[in-house]
Design brief:
Belongs to the chloride channel (TC 2.A.49) family. ClC-3/CLCN3 subfamily. By secondary structure, the protein is mainly α. About 50% of the residues lie in helices and about 5% in strands.
Length: about 850
C-alpha cells in the first residue's frame, strides 16, 4: 500500500491512532455483529492496571471510531448509574451528567443568538458607512439616523439633515457630477478597505475562518478531525471578518458562516463538560444542535434550522439530538428576538405578508422558476468548482489577498451605478419580496392608476406598469447578470462567504421580473381562458413579490439540493404559510432539474474538491465490484504487514513501524496459520512500547511481545516479556473477499468504520480503509476500470472442494491449491498472492 501516491492524504480516513477500545475497569464481555454477520460475545480487551497517557485521543486529519466512542459512553453511563446510590455527591454528579447536554445546548443557543445580533447590527452600520455617516449619532445607520427627523418626507424618507454623504462632508456638494464622483470614489475606497482588512485578518490569525464552513462542518460531523477549525481564534476572527466581508459589498452572505460561528460556540462550550470533552461522538451531537441554532439565527427559522441539521449536515442524528437541536434553536431565536437587530420586532429583515391568494394557473410560472433554479444551480456548481480547481492548480491561488482585492474592486466599480446592486443584498431581497402597497415609494411600484376600471375588487388592483417599473426591470436584468457572474468568482475566496443570500437574491430578481411580466399579461389579456376565471378587471390577481419568494427558494434549492428544510426555512423567513404548495413545486422542480446535470450539491462538490473523507449517504452504489477488488495490498504492492500473536520481539515491531507507514496491523496466530486474532493500531503500539520502557523494568529490544491471553513459556534467561493484549481489538470488523462492495460501503456509512479486514475462511487477505472506498468510488465516477480483475474473475479464485475424480483437493492453510486444469495459471497466481502475505 503506497501511501505516498494516496490522493486523500493527509485526510486519512483510516487514521493512525485508533485509541484503546475501552477505559479502566471496562466490563469483560461485549456483543457485536461484525462485517461478516457473525455474532460473537467475546472478551474484547484485557485491561491495563493503569491507563496509558495519550491513548484515547485522535490526531489531526483523522477519523474517529464511532463504535469505540459509543462503547466508551455506554460504559461511562453504567459506571455513573452504579455509583449514584453510594452518596449524595455521587447522586449530584449523576444529575449533573444527565443535565449537561441541556446546559451545553443552552449556552450554545445564548452565544449564537448574541453573536448573530452583534453581526447583524455591525454589518448594517458598516454597510451604510460606505455612503455616509450620521453626525448626530455616529453609531446610527442610515435608517436609524432619519427615524427621529422632522425634515424627512414620505417620498424621500431616507434623506434627512442628520445624515451626510461623503460628498457633502468632503466637497460640500449634495448634488451634481462632482458629488456623484466623490461618493463613487469613497464607496470603492471603503469596499476595498473592508475587504483588505478581512482577508488580512483571516490570513494572519485564522486561515480556517474563510469560506462558508458548511462543507467542513459536514465532514467534521461525519467523524473527521480538523483541529482548530472550531476553536476560539477561528470564532473570534470569523465574527469580525464576517462583518467586514458583508460590509465590503461582495456578492456573499452571512447566513452560511453563522452556522460555522454557532458550531464554534458549541465546540468551545462542550469542553466545559467531561461528558462531551472526552468523547468525540458525543461532541458531534452538540455540533448538530449548534448547526440548527446557526440556521435559526441566520434566517429566523427555528424549525427550519432543526430540519436543516437533520437533512443537510448531520451524519448521526439520534432522537435526543433532535430535541436538543430544537431547544438550541429556540434559545438562539429568543435571544435574537430580544436584541431586535433590525428594529422591526422580527427575527429577519425581509418578513413580508401577502394579502392575495395564489391561483392554480400560477403553478406554471412557479414550475418555470423551478427550472431556472435548477439550471442556475447546475451552472453555478460546475463553474465555481472549475474556478476553485484552477485556483488550486495555478499561481493565482498563492495570492489570496490580491484575489480578494481584485474581486472587491470589480464588484464595487460595477455595483455602484446600479441602485439594486449598490444595495445590501438583504435589503435588495426585502425590496423584491415586498408587495406594492399604498406606502411603497420604490420604482418597482411605479404603476399608472387606471381610472377606467369598471369594478374595483381590491384596494390596489392590478394596474399597467409605469416608466419606473420598466426602468427597474432593465436595472434588475443587469443586476441579475452581475450577480450570477460575481457569485461564481466570490464563493471560495479567503474571506467568510455564504451562499444562501446571493442565491436567493438571484432567484428573487428572476422571480420579480417573471411576476411583473405575468401581472401585465393578466392585466392586458384578462379575457384569456387561463385568466378569465380568476383575474377580473380591477382585481388584485398577481403578486410579483410572491414570484420573487418562489424564485429565491428555487435558486437556493438548485445550488444546495435541499428540499424539506428549505421550504420550511422560506415560509418561516417570510411568514408565507399559505404559499407552501408553490414553494414545494418550485423547490422540487429545481432539484429534479439540477439532479439531471449532477446529483451533487455545492457543499458535496467542495467536499470532494478538498479531498475530505466523506461518504455521502445520499449516493447510491450500483456497481458489481467485490471486496477483493478494493482491498489492499494489490498485486503490485508489498505483502500485507502483519504481527504474530507471540513470536515477535519489541525490536521486530519497532522495525516494522519504522519501515512502514501503515496505520494498523492485523495480528495473526502464526506465520504458518495466518488465522486472524485481532487488530493493533500503529499509534497504540508506539505509545504502549514507549510507556513500557519507561515504567516497566526489564523491557528491552529482545523482549518477547505477547498478544495472547497467556504468556508462552520462555527460557529462564529470556528478558521480561511485554503483554500488549490490552491494546488489541479482539473484534475487528471483517468481511469475506466475495462480499459485494455495495454491502461494504453500507457498513462503512452506517457504522462509521475506518477500516475493515478482508478474510477467506478466517485467513487474512487484506484490508479496506475509508480512503480505499473513496478512491474506488472516484474511479467509478470517472469511468475508469478498477485495478482489480472483474467480478466474474473472482468467482473462479477458489476451485470446488472436490475434483473431477470425486476426491478432496489438497489444502494448505485451508486454501485449495490444486486448480482446475483450464484455470491452472490464474488460480496459481491467486494462491501465490495469498501465500505472499506471510512474513
Amino acid at each position: 500500500m503506497d501511501v505516498s501516491s494516496d490522493p486523500y492524504l493527509p485526510y486519512d480516513g483510516g487514521g493512525d491512532n485508533i485509541p484503546l477500545r475501552e477505559l479502566h475497569k471496562r466490563g469483560t464481555h461485549y456483543t457485536m455483529t461484525n462485517g461478516g454477520s457473525i455474532n460473537s460475545s467475546t472478551h474484547l480487551l484485557d485491561l491495563l492496571d493503569e491507563p496509558i497517557p495519550g491513548v484515547g485521543t485522535y490526531d489531526d486529519f483523522h477519523t474517529i471510531d464511532w463504535v469505540r466512542e459509543k462503547c466508551k459512553d455506554r460504559e461511562r453511563h453504567r459506571r455513573i448509574n452504579s455509583r449514584k446510590k453510594e452518596s449524595a455527591w455521587e447522586m449530584a454528579k449523576s444529575l449533573y451528567d444527565a443535565w449537561s447536554g441541556w446546559l451545553v445546548v443552552t449556552l450554545t443557543g445564548l452565544a449564537s443568538g448574541a453573536l448573530a445580533g452583534l453581526i447583524d447590527i455591525a454589518a448594517d452600520w458598516m454597510t451604510d458607512v460606505k455612503e455616509g455617516i450620521c453626525l448626530s449619532a455616529l453609531w446610527f445607520n442610515h435608517e436609524q439616523c432619519c427615524w427621529g427627523s422632522n425634515e424627512a418626507t414620505f417620498e424621500e424618507r431616507d434623506k434627512c439633515p442628520q445624515w451626510k454623504t461623503w460628498a457633502e462632508l468632503i466637497i460640500g456638494q449634495a448634488e451634481g457630477p462632482g458629488s456623484y464622483i466623490m461618493n463613487y470614489i469613497m464607496y470603492i475606497f471603503w469596499a476595498l478597505s473592508f475587504a483588505f482588512l478581512a482577508v488580512s485578518l483571516v490570513k494572519v490569525f485564522a486561515p480556517y475562518a474563510c469560506g462558508s464552513g458548511i462543507p467542513e462542518i459536514k465532514t467534521i460531523l461525519s467523524g473527521f478531525i480538523i483541529r482548530g477549525y472550531l476553536g476560539k481564534w477561528t470564532l473570534m476572527i470569523k465574527t469580525v471578518t464576517l462583518v467586514l466581508a458583508v460590509a465590503s459589498g461582495l456578492s456573499l452572505g452571512k447566513e452560511g458562516p453563522l452556522v460555522h460561528v454557532a458550531c464554534c460556540c458549541g465546540n468551545i462550550f462542550s469542553y466545559l463538560f467531561p461528558k462531551y470533552s472526552t468523547n468525540e461522538a458525543k461532541k458531534r451531537e452538540v455540533l448538530s444542535a449548534a448547526s440548527a441554532a446557526g440556521v435559526s439565527v441566520a434566517f429566523g427559522a427555528p424549525i427550519g434550522g432543526v430540519l436543516f441539521s437533520l437533512e443537510e449536515v448531520s451524519y448521526y442524528f439520534p432522537l435526543k439530538t433532535l430535541w436538543r437541536s430544537f431547544f438550541a434553536a429556540l434559545v438562539a431565536a429568543f435571544v435574537l428576538r430580544s436584541i431586535n437587530p433590525f428594529g422591526n420586532s422580527r427575527l429577519v429583515l425581509f418578513y413580508v405578508e401577502y394579502h392575495t391568494p395564489w391561483y392554480l394557473f400560477e403553478l406554471l410560472p412557479f414550475i418555470l422558476l423551478g427550472v431556472f433554479g435548477g439550471l442556475w444551480g447546475a451552472f453555478f456548481i460546475r463553474a465555481n468548482i472549475a474556478w476553485c480547481r484552477r485556483r488550486k492548480s495555478t499561481k493565482f491561488g498563492k495570492y489570496p489577498v490580491l484575489e480578494v482585492i481584485i474581486v472587491a474592486a470589480i464588484t464595487a466599480v460595477i455595483a455602484f451605478p446600479n441602485p439594486y446592486t449598490r444595495l445590501n443584498t438583504s435589503e435588495l431581497i426585502k425590496e423584491l419580496f415586498t408587495d406594492c402597497g399604498p406606502l411603497e415609494s420604490s420604482s418597482l411600484c411605479d404603476y399608472r392608476n387606471d381610472m377606467n376600471a369598471s369594478k374595483i375588487v381590491d384596494d390596489i388592483p392590478d394596474r399597467p406598469a409605469g416608466t419606473g417599473v420598466y426602468s427597474a426591470i432593465w436595472q434588475l436584468c443587469l443586476a441579475l447578470i452581475f450577480k450570477i457572474i460575481m457569485t461564481v468568482f466570490t464563493f471560495g475566496i479567503k474571506v467568510p462567504s455564504g451562499l444562501f443570500i446571493p442565491s436567493m437574491a438571484i432567484g428573487a430578481i428572476a422571480g420579480r421580473i417573471v411576476g411583473i411580466a405575468v401581472e401585465q399579461l393578466a392585466y392586458y389579456h384578462h379575457d384569456w381562458f387561463i385568466f378569465k376565471e380568476w383575474c377580473e378587471v380591477g382585481a388584485d390577481c398577481i403578486t410579483p413579490g410572491l414570484y420573487a419568494m418562489v424564485g429565491a427558494a428555487a435558486c437556493l434549492g438548485g445550488v444546495t439540493r435541499m428540499t424539506v428544510s428549505l421550504v420550511v426555512i422560506v415560509f418561516e423567513l417570510t411568514g408565507g404559510l399559505e404559499y407552501i404548495v408553490p414553494l414545494m413545486a418550485a423547490v422540487m422542480t429545481s432539484k429534479w432539474v439540477g439532479d439531471a446535470f449532477g446529483r451533487e450539491g455545492i457543499y458535496e462538490a467542495h467536499i470532494r474538491l478538498n479531498g475530505y473523507p466523506f461518504l455521502d449517504a445520499k449516493e447510491e452504489f450500483t456497481h458489481t465490484t467485490l471486496a477483493a477488488d478494493v482491498m489492499r495490498p494489490r498485486r503490485s504492492d508489498p505483502p500485507l504487514a502483519v504481527l504474530t500473536q507471540d513470536n515477535m520481539t519489541v525490536e521486530d515491531i519497532e522495525n516494522l513501524i519504522n519501515e512502514t507507514s501503515y496505520n494498523g496491523f492485523p495480528v495473526i496466530m502464526s506465520k504458518e496459520s495466518q488465522r486472524l486474532v485481532g487488530f493493533a493500531l500503529r499509534r497504540d503500539l508506539t505509545i504502549a512500547i514507549e510507556s513500557a520502557r519507561k515504567k516497566q523494568e526489564g523491557i528491552v529490544g529482545s523482549s518477547r511481545v505477547c498478544f495472547a491471553q497467556h504468556t508462552p513459556s520462555l527460557p529462564a534467561e529470556s528478558p521480561r516479556p511485554l503483554k500488549l493484549r490490552s491494546i488489541l481489538d479482539m473484534s475487528p470488523f471483517t468481511v469475506t473477499d466475495h462480499t459485494p462492495m455495495e454491502i461494504v460501503v453500507d457498513i462503512f456509512r452506517k457504522l462509521g468504520l475506518r477500516q475493515c479486514l478482508v478474510t477467506h475462511n478466517g485467513i487474512v487477505l487484506g484490508i479496506i480503509t475509508k480512503k480505499n472506498i473513496l478512491e474506488h468510488l472516484e474511479q467509478l465516477k470517472q469511468h475508469v476500470e478498477p485495478l482489480a480483475p472483474p467480478w466474474h474473475y473472482n468467482k473462479k479464485r477458489y476451485p470446488p472442494s472436490y475434483g473431477p475424480d470425486g476426491k478432496p483437493r489438497p489444502r494448505i492453510n485451508n486454501v485449495q491449491l490444486k486448480p482446475i486444469a483450464e484455470e491452472r495459471e490464474e488460480t496459481e497466481e491467486e494462491v501465490h498472492l495469498l501465500n505472499s502475505t506471510t512474513l
